[in-house]
Design a protein that fits this description.
The complex is a heterodimer of chains A (about 110) and B (about 110).
Chain A: E1 4-7, E2 10-13, E3 19-25, E4 31-37, E5 43-51, E6 54-57, E7 64-66, E8 76-78, E9 87-94, E10 101-102, E11 106-110
Parallel strand pairs in A: 2-11
Antiparallel strand pairs in A: 1-3, 3-8, 4-5, 4-9, 5-6, 7-8, 9-10, 9-11
Chain B: E1 4-5, E2 11-14, E3 19-25, E4 32-38, E5 45-50, E6 54-58, E7 61-66, E8 71-76, E9 85-92, E10 100-101, E11 105-110
Parallel strand pairs in B: 2-11
Antiparallel strand pairs in B: 1-3, 3-8, 4-5, 4-9, 6-7, 7-8, 9-10, 9-11
Classes of the chains: A mainly beta (about 110), B mainly beta (about 110).
Chain lengths: ~110, ~110
Amino acid sequence: DGGITQSPKYLFRKEGQNVTLSCEQNLNHDAMYWYRQDPGQGLRLIYYSQIVNDFQKGDIAEGYSVSREKKESFPLTVTSAQKNPTAFYLCASSGNTGELFFGEGSRLTVL
Amino acid sequence: QKEVEQNSGPLSVPEGAIASLNCTYSDRGSQSFFWYRQYSGKSPELIMSIYSNGDKEDGRFTAQLNKASQYVSLLIRDSQPSDSATYLCAVNRGGYQKVTFGTGTKLQVIP
């Protein structure tokens, strides 16, 4: 089935560790996005990519890094520089309509 | 001023009534407008897209767009308890541009 797969679904991290969240899509979409959602809040854009080998910072990029080496994949690394990384992370993709299709999300907790 | 503003609610309506959800946006260059539904602990799912002024109907849902007033709304007719969720308004400048979300309105449909 076509869709977006995020992994892991739950992740625990010790302070000072980097972690990488996986996002894979088989929808043949050109654009991919990473959002962060905190409890009771809306979605805030971390990074987005409109084409392979190119990406742009969103509103809260500090402490995060991404790569887009393949059309299907857009992994997000949460670095130790991110001061408050505990959140729900959502990956999405879109075609040229701008309609976003989301994965099931990854819930990161810092211990 | 926030780019996309929504009343956080909760908005409570009785079962069978019409629920009216509102959203304003600040970027006059916005071309595409979306409504997403998010159940607690889940990822958002697209329920409506609208690209031109006026109304767009899909089943029990009607999206309304007024670009001059920078206002977009979602009406849910014959509200059901299963409609209880947070509704997120989102906008972009079209195509593969970044998609900006409001903080969402929590809807409660009372049986």
